[in-house]
Amino acid sequence: MANVTVVGAQWGDEGKGKIVDWLASRADVVVRFQGGHNAGHTLVVGEKVYKLSLLPSGIVTGTLSIIGNGVVLDPWALKAEIEKLESQGVVINTENFSIAENCPLILPMHRDLDALRETAAGAGKIGTTGRGIGPAYEDKVGRRAIRVCDLAHLDSLDAQLDRLCAHHDALRAGFGQPAVDREALIAELKEIAPFVLQFAEPVWKRLNTVKKAGARVLFEGAQGVLLDVDHGTYPFVTSSNTVSGTAASGSGMGPSSAGFVLGIVKAYTTRVGSGPFPTELEDEVGQRLGERGHEFGTVTGRKRRCGWFDAVLVRQSCAISGVTGIALTKLDVLDGFEKVKICTGYRLRGKVLDYYPSHAADQAAVEPIYEEMDGWQGTTAGARSWADLPAQAIKYIQRVQELIETPVALVSTSPEREDTILVRDPFID
Ligand code: IMP
């Protein structure tokens, strides 16, 4: 089956937007299966820059784009994003866009709770995107969520709202906040409902139909494997499973539909928000990586923390997510460095580890073991074949591939769609 599942193999922001956009232009369907509008994807097509947080990247190319049930959906953010894209000339209609009717909603009370908790946590905060993602997933699992299909039955929602508001009102009282304004909430939902409902359908059914017709499906993961609620740097993670396996449960297609799993890997490491980061550089090298890589969050504008490439973490992500091949991005940010370093192992209280442990205290305590390589002086920016790359840059790529025990399928050398070295076509192999 010629499907592709894309996941970030680090802490998000690996440059998935461009790769997904490039793959989307060759796919028949693009599906988002987890996360919400906390995902920041920047697409550069010619002169135009599109910023997406919630919509699948295929929307820009007019490819059928689907929001699966594994996503948490903020209806107002959805409307704003659609209107912004339409103002940039993107056509979005019921032919090319649909939303799973069983998708849980992010409501204003979720945003409130996200902010209240982060403020109360002070220095111990997660550093969330403040979009209400975590609280919305909690309500989904707690079986009190309002879902897209409920928007068609707002007049008979009393019992559900009782359960939901009872839970939130107790939490809000603990923070000294007033109860949820139910009348205002219902009025807001009534206003937005027709807009959302025009796109709602049983997505699993549509996917089953396109599958039978032999369509190529692209599953677009958001965030990164290290932010996975099970496998990531818990508790400094997002609230969904970001691994490739979620493509199945978050869309309603079986696991055999995942196809080629493409892990997106930045040539160095970045992270936004709090949490451990073994190779973080708080010196001028880290500063240089951030400046050259324009490392500011797409969603929140926050400065990203930067560090050397961590082969241990990426090897782990690739194993956990069953990555078939990687797309290496932003290699040009390393251009001109005299020396570059790769983390190949950790030292923890006298022991050498070849994996990242689960306990938060151990994760914070590991010290990276580095391998140093000569850098390269020529530029890799805009390269479209191996012949365009300096020899030392090729050595770096080969070493990365060896250490992470996963082959390189693509190398992306600028934000432009065409600036890509294709080693192995995920849709064909
Ligand atoms: P939340 O997903 O807003 O709950 O945030 C939880 C953690 O995930 C925080 O560290 C965020 O910075 C991080 N995060 C969420 N979405 C993204 C993303 O798209 N890129 C990078 N980090 C993200």
From TrEMBL:
Q: Which CDD domains match?
A: AdSS
Location in the cell reads: Cytoplasm
- GO-annotated biological processes: 'de novo' AMP biosynthetic process; IMP metabolic process
Residues reported in the UniProt entry to bind IMP: 13-16, 38-41, 129, 143, 223, 238, 302
Quick one: a GO cellular component term? cytoplasm
Primary place of residence? cytoplasm
Q: Which reaction does it catalyse?
A: IMP + L-aspartate + GTP = N(6)-(1,2-dicarboxyethyl)-AMP + GDP + phosphate + 2 H(+)
- GO molecular function terms listed in the Swiss-Prot or TrEMBL record: adenylosuccinate synthase activity; GTP binding; magnesium ion binding
Pathway recorded for this protein:
Purine metabolism; AMP biosynthesis via de novo pathway; AMP from IMP: step 1/2
Locate the residues binding Mg(2+). 13, 40
- Give the protein's cofactors: Mg(2+)
Q: What does this protein do?
A: Plays an important role in the de novo pathway of purine nucleotide biosynthesis. Catalyzes the first committed step in the biosynthesis of AMP from IMP.
Record organism: Novosphingobium sediminicola
InterPro entries from the entry?
Answer: Adenylosuccin_syn_GTP-bd, Adenylosuccin_syn_Lys_AS, Adenylosuccinate_synth_dom1, Adenylosuccinate_synth_dom2, Adenylosuccinate_synth_dom3, Adenylosuccinate_synthetase, P-loop_NTPase
Q: What is this protein called?
A: Adenylosuccinate synthetase
Q: Which residues does the record give as GTP binding sites?
A: 12-18, 40-42, 304, 330-332, 412-414
Q: What is its EC number?
A: 6.3.4.4
Q: Fetch the SMART domains from UniProt.
A: Adenylsucc_synt
What are the positions of the active site? 13, 41, 140
Query: Per the annotation, how and in what number is the cofactor bound?
Result: Binds 1 Mg(2+) ion per subunit.
UniProt lists the family membership as follows: Belongs to the adenylosuccinate synthetase family.
Q: Which Pfam families match?
A: Adenylsucc_synt
Which classification does the entry list for the species?
Bacteria, Pseudomonadati, Pseudomonadota, Alphaproteobacteria, Sphingomonadales
Which controlled-vocabulary keywords does the entry list?
A: Cytoplasm, GTP-binding, Ligase, Magnesium, Metal-binding, Nucleotide-binding, Purine biosynthesis
Q: State the encoding gene.
A: purA
